[in-house]
Amino acid sequence: MNQPVQSWTLSDDADAVDWTVLVDIFARAALGTREPERLRRIFTQSTVRCFAWADNILVGAGRAISDRISYAAIFDVVVTPEWQGRGIGTAIMQHLIAAAEAPNIILHAVPGKEPFYRRFGFRTMKTAMARFSLPEVQARAGYIE
């Protein structure tokens, strides 16, 4: 018996988001813990945002900061585990890249997810550096040396 095809849509409407649901998506996708109000502020203050919905349920998100001339940075691309592998992450990335309107884009990826981002032309940087508020946590997670 074939499973019915479930459809999904993308939106940039942050007003429709239940931030506690997005917090849960980050946790279930093993991308750490977030606070709902802080997450709301982060997404609403980003230049570009994208939310994925399936049957009026939030299933993914991503955001970017861009000067819309030269540079942009992509952060927080996440899809709930049960909706991964259906093209939602790809669609979110395509939306963020197009809406950022910048020829040069960097991103912050979870270690081990680099192959996904290579599909969009991203390459490992040799000279990238970061300053984190909790460097020991970031080092344990594999983000920095």
Global structural class: alpha+beta
CATH hierarchy: architecture: 3-Layer(aba) Sandwich
* Radius of gyration, CA atoms, in whole angstroms: 15 Å
Oligomeric status of the shown chains? single chain
Average per-residue pLDDT, rounded, comes to 92
| DSSP E strands, number | 5
- The amount of helix comes to 25-40%
Q: What characteristic shape results from the CA principal axes?
A: globular
Low-confidence stretches: 1-5
- CATH homologous superfamily designation: Gcn5-related N-acetyltransferase (GNAT)
Number of domains: 1
- Top-tier CATH class: Alpha Beta
Q: What is the succession of H and E elements?
A: EHHEEEHEHH
Number of helices: 5
What is the CA–CA distance across the termini?
50 Å
| CATH fold name | Aminopeptidase
Largest sheet: 5 strands, mixed
β-strand amount: 15-25%
Q: How would you describe this structure to a colleague?
A:
The chain is α+β, with helices and mostly antiparallel strands and 145 residues long. It has a single domain (9-110), classed as Aminopeptidase (3-Layer(aba) Sandwich). The protein is 30% helix and 23% strand. The chain has helices spanning 19-28, 36-44, 88-100, 114-118, 135-140; strands at residues 9-11, 48-54, 57-66, 71-79, 104-107. It has a 5-stranded mixed sheet, sandwiched between helices. The N and C termini lie far apart (50 Å). Mean pLDDT is 92; it is low at 1-5.
